[in-house]
Design goal:
Radius of gyration: 18 Å
Number of strands: 0
Order of helices and strands: HHHHHHHHHHHH
Largest sheet: none
Distance between the termini: 21 Å
Shape: globular
Low-confidence stretches: none
Structural class: mainly alpha
Number of domains: 1
Strand content: under 5%
Length: 241
């Protein structure tokens, strides 16, 4: 499985479009939100909170893009090749999930660098290290969701569905705009969404505290839901491909 993970990571990082747009778009949005468009753009707390939100958004997009690659591979017969390997279904899905999680790092690092070097965000060394680690590890549910979509849907449909999921999760999760600005009912719903709890890993770190129990429990619940979806989708694709 380790060789499979290395292969998938190399294939993804060799794609210049993925690296440029996957890392560049969240940085551009972050700088626009904090220096051009947003009210309170001179507020250091807003620049820090937006940095975490946009890093989470970049990680979410990179993680879900794994599914688009899977759908394209499926149409080329790569799934049939994997089926003749000794790897069981769960190892194939886990290997692709690990590879997808690794590829979120360029987006996370790019936004954090923009925050520190351009917007002057100042955090302790341990906070920067914790941000990178938590936003890397916390992207797993979205990688699994993208994988499930990739195995279940066609290449064209996967791209559309992943984009819809990305935008919906980002907006409802408060990655673009503060959840405090939402209506009460939507605010209550947002705290149980995976994107909001994912970003809370970073927001808690910037406040100097550990993520709360609710954040961990909710994220683990979404890992189980999306992980089961990915395994079921792979089994279905293996039977029909």
């Amino acid at each position: 499985m380790l060789k499979y993970v290395k292969l998938e990571v190399r294939r993804t990082l060799r794609d210049p479009g993925f690296v440029i747009f996957g890392a560049g778009m969240p940085v551009l949005m972050y700088l626009l939100f904090t220096n051009v468009a947003g009210a309170g753009s001179d507020d250091d707390s807003w620049k820090t909170a937006s940095m975490v939100g946009m890093a989470a958004y970049g990680a979410l997009g990179a993680a879900m893009s794994t599914g688009t690659g899977i759908a394209e591979d499926k149409s080329l017969g790569w799934l049939r090749q994997l089926r003749i390997t000794p790897m069981p279904h769960r190892q194939v899905v886990l290997g692709r999930a690990i590879a997808g999680s690794v590829t979120v790092l360029p987006a996370v690092l790019a936004v954090l660098l923009a925050g520190g070097l351009i917007n002057g965000v100042r955090l302790g060394l341990w906070q920067w290290a914790a941000l990178i680690t938590l936003l890397w590890a916390g992207a797993l549910p979205f990688t699994l969701l993208g994988i499930g979509n990739g195995y279940r849907l066609s290449a064209q449909t996967t791209g559309v569905v992943n984009t819809g999921c990305l935008m919906g999760l980002a907006v409802i999760g408060g990655l673009w705009f503060p959840v405090d600005a939402f209506p009460g009912w939507l605010r209550s719903l947002a705290v149980y969404t995976p994107a909001n709890r994912f970003a809370d890993l970073g927001w808690s770190t910037t406040h100097g505290t550990a993520p709360g129990a609710t954040t961990i429990v909710v994220l683990m619940g979404w890992v189980l839901v999306f992980g089961s979806y990915a395994v079921v989708s792979y089994r279905r694709a293996a039977r029909t491909s």
